[in-house]
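Protocol step 4 of 6: record predicted structures for both targets in the notebook before any analysis. Target 1:
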Amino acid sequence: MRVAITHTRYCAKGGVERYIWDLVKRLCDAGHDVHYFCHFADSHADPRVKIHRIPNRWKHIRFMKVWSFDRWLTRHVRRDEWDVIHGFSKSSIQDIYTDGSGCLLDYQTYSIDEKPEGDLKKALRRASLHQRQVLAIEERRFTRGNFSKIVTMSDLVAKQIKQRYGLSDDEVVTIYNGIDIERFVPALRPTYSAAYRERIVTAPDSFVVLCIGNDYRRKGIPTLIEAARLLKSRGGLPGGRPFRFAIVGKERHTVENEMSAICKKVGVYAEVKFYGPQDLVERWMGMADLFVLPSRFDAFGNVVPEAMATGVPALVSKKAGAVELIADGENGYVLEDPDDAETIVKRVLELARDEPLRQRLGAAARAIAEKYTWDHHFSRMLALYDEVAAAKKRNALVR
């Protein structure tokens, strides 16, 4: 099968990027002819992939960068020349589109409306050329005739798209992301627990709360800081056991500095630390006692099932798609309100006091994760590819 993948970046850093990286490898392993259309490709990209670099002359003008990427794809990657075109970035026309962010107007609720800015500035941001360009591309993308299937990572996002654009259950399909259950395994805990506690300069017996994610405000980092403040102000963990809130992910230095300043101000600078982006996230999972994602919105959140596969209980916001894998109190916990620092404190104390409970939840989390392997996911995606390619051939014969 001749497959075209479209995304601005071909690399393994970032949730969507890492997913595509693994998908492309699987497609190549299965013998498919894979072409990747992008602005940037990592030097370690799979040599079996034919990389097509899209000119990026407008990279310093945000709305033009988005517009030019979509325009180039529309002109040069024509649907009738490929068995399947699978799009992941801001593009108007493809056979299969995997949506990793949801609808723009819904996303603006979190990315603009909830920011600590004045009404005028929020209105200007909504009316910006960049936002208008993204919305225009989205409206074309979800117009019948410009796609065959829309794949969402969660029912949360599927519902958004179907409601806003009047699409059917047959047109919008939820397929949860695959998990590398051989990379993320409970055996990592005894291997990396002590080593990584030493690496982040905390005591070997520390209770480690881990959060992995970019865009700190949207991921709920202020709520984690408040939870750490509450926990410390109430005397900390039983027996004086130390604790550490470890934040891993990419963010602008100004925002990270702002968050660090808040930690200093409220007295948890030693308990909440920011470690930036990390390649070997499985080792950080192996160190964690609890994974927390108090996100204000996430289409899915691959880090949640990865934590579960590592045997780490997860506390996940109801506004993150990955919460659909959580049975509250059975294999993890649901955070009804992403601003609810009290519940985070409650769950940290509960698990710190009861190691057998933490182990039971971790084992149940692993059992759920094993149902969403990469093999299972890839078989579903390949079946969808076959379905779409067959439909294209039938339609070509009719014409």
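Target 2:
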Amino acid sequence: MLEINSGSSKVNDMKNPVDFVAEAKKVFEAEARAILDLKDRLNGSLTAAVETIVQCDGKVVLTGMGKSGLIGRKIASTLSSTGTPSLFLHPAESSHGDLGVLSPKDVIIALSYRGETPELTHLLQFAVRKGLKVIAITGNIQSSLAQTADVVLDVSVKEEACPLGLAPTASTTAALAMGDALAMALLIRRGFQAEDFAEFHPGGSLGRRLLTKVSDLMHTAEALPIVTKDTPMKEIVYKMTSREVRGVAGVIDSSGDLVGVITDGDLRRRMDKVSDFMAETANSIMSLNPKTIDVSEMAERALFMMEQFSIQVLFVVDSDSEFSRKPIGVLHLQDLLKANIR
């Protein structure tokens, strides 16, 4: 029989099990305190960092070793997706040729909690020689890094969340939060909008929501179920069942303006009221003042309107044209759901 020797004092004694949930809560509390403590240090340095980056005609280059480097990569990604072109440069690789990625117009954001990372030395010396602005994110404002930097963002923490006080936990969380705060401040400073964000995320659900317009999804031309006020019931039913968008018909007047809409519900209600249903015309069945949406609106706006008014179809108009009430398309709720607009 194979015997497994659990055998050392380092293995948790299951007779006295650790409350891991309680330990996890301590981690959350320590990291939450680390972030909240940053609020008292948001002085002119954050403003200076924002303006330094806004005035930068090049890119923002993040750098750092180990855990700080991983945080730097995330900050670079966040900056890039919110309107500030950024990349990560590994400090050890930089001294072996990768310094060539830097241009005199760039800004460097260097992360090092203790501020004495040896691998940053060559990169910082290069920045000084070339006159590049340096923003330091560090927990030691007296460090070599802080002394070299033009702007210092203090992310010092009272304690790590690690019970041994060794693994970077609260300190990396604080650095990440400071990076997010900087990115969001820059977003506001640049006037970055949701549409701009979507441009950088065309492959995701947010991109679909914010980039897809009514014009991209609407049915047009022969697919439009349109009748006039005098159209008899037989033709109305045909139009409502033979087009791409079924169960609805738009009613236009002699000028071609949309004046009403007929839905399945309108047909059922009329059938209950009259004996000779097939003798009816569109004028006696239609609902007045149908909801419309402009062709240039975002598809997400159409979904909002459908949900707000509990309807499944919107006729599309062009408010900027000479014939602003003429229907040029129709959009069904299913079109929006198929396009994942939600």
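Step 5 preliminary note on target 2. The first helix runs from residue 20 to 38. Confidence is low (pLDDT under 50) at residues 1-9.
Proceed to step 6 after PI sign-off.
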